[in-house]
Amino acid sequence: MRVLVTGAAGYVGRHLCDRLRRAGMDVTGLVRRSAPGLTVPVRYADLSDVDAIPRALDGIDVVIHSAARVGAGTAAAFERDNVAGTRHLVSALNGRRLLHLSTVQVYGTRRLVDADERCPVDPGADPYSATKAEAERIVAALPTGWLIFRPAVVWGGPHDSRLMPSLRRLSLIRSVVFPGPCRSPMPFTHVDNLADMVLAALDRPNVDREVFNVADGSLADGVSVSFRDFVLRYGERAGRPFRLVASAPVPALTAAIRAGAAVAGRVGLAWPTGLRPEVLRLFNTPCTLSVARARDRLGVIPSPREHLQ
Question: Is the pLDDT of residue 225 over 50?
Fold first, then answer.
């Protein structure tokens, strides 16, 4: 079985390439440009290039679609990369199996308690969430040969260049200001738990046309951690507990973010997706997810990792 990982130069794609290679699989990464440090062979193609995609898929049996725009960008850029790119890939599959990586943000930022995959998709107007939901619809329109995975806040592993490095920097000064109370339970997804689920799916070709939540085990069985728990636990496990812990008011932060985004839009600058009201709501709205389907259908039980063990 030959596997192609799109977005292989990114955080999740790079980790999946590493895990699949260590598992003895014949894996190739798909990148748009040179990607130093990849441990697998690469092919070059942009998913906006409809002529290049069939060539990139030559000899491939299974595609893991992890390529997506997750950072800054205009609405048009999110549409191009997350929707049109997925549509072009799906059109070129020609019977190949597709494992599509989506996000729990397709559920929106509302209160959810032990929500399973039947929960209605309601991403709102956020460009990342909305385009990932549309990409899911494109994949699910295939008659057969697809699975969709919905990870939460992905973290950990050697290629994490965002969340864990930020925690390390904060632990050095032993101070943190949270964006609001951040005491609500929320889902996290360690990148190895995501990789475990993908590997299990590759071993089960008869599991088809299904959607899977991907969320970590927690400090207390059945109870998700809050963002505050996640950060403070890191300081404790690192031997540098935080001395100064404060919270910034959500209304003031929301107003500042909206003002900044408006100014950026007027001058033609892309506003980072991490700085948006939806993220504040994510950190401060209770959300727990069921992973029972993954347990029952794939035999995978996500476990606590790193400082959450």
Answer: yes
